[in-house]
Amino acid sequence: MSVQSTHVSPDHATSSIGADPSAHAARHSGLLPLAVVLLGGITVWLSLIAINNITDFGTNRALLEQTISMEALKEDPLRANGLEWRAMPESLAVPALIAVIAHQVGTVALMWRAVATGVRVLRRKGGTGLVDFLRHTNHSLVAFLGLFIGFLVGGLWFGYWMHLGPVQQVHLTLLIIGALVAVVVNLLPLTARALVREVTE
């Protein structure tokens, strides 16, 4: 009488959890839902910032004019006397703000694409997997982080930290949150590989 082998191959184990075992593992570890929620949160945040910049253009133009002209610092007899040569004409505020809004709108579009990809992975719909989510998210976060690094560097050039502290804090906060989201998202492959090994071994 022959005895049939009961060995389960890794391929069979992998097929039992779906065509994309990494996505399955990331989803059930809880890290993928966390990453999608965090990414969705900062996407909504940046979307509102872009909408505010468009609908309240005048306020943001005045803020940018104040920053690049360095008027507040020129009126101060003590601070930033050695930086005043960096001031630029107020007329540049409008094209600069339009460029910022264009960058924000483009970044928001990339981020919403990444969020939609993450939701599809969570719902197991479509052919998009974990690799697509990572790629779309990292592309969008490059644009997101680049925006706020640019704000911080530009603001430091014009000395805005001396008179626009709350604005600088918003930029720094968004930079830190964006970096944390990038860390969480890029931990997904490591977590997924570890969980897939547990299933297939």
From TrEMBL:
Q: Which domain of life is it from?
A: Bacteria
Instruction: Please give the Pfam families that the UniProt record associates with this protein.
Output: DUF2165 (PF09933)
Question: Transmembrane among the record's keywords?
Answer: yes
Query: What residue intervals traverse the membrane?
Result: 31-51, 92-115, 141-160, 172-196
Extent of Polar residues compositional bias:
1-17
Keywords, in A-Z order: Membrane, Transmembrane, Transmembrane helix
Q: What is this protein called?
A: DUF2165 family protein
- Upper lineage: Bacteria, Bacillati, Actinomycetota, Actinomycetes, Kitasatosporales
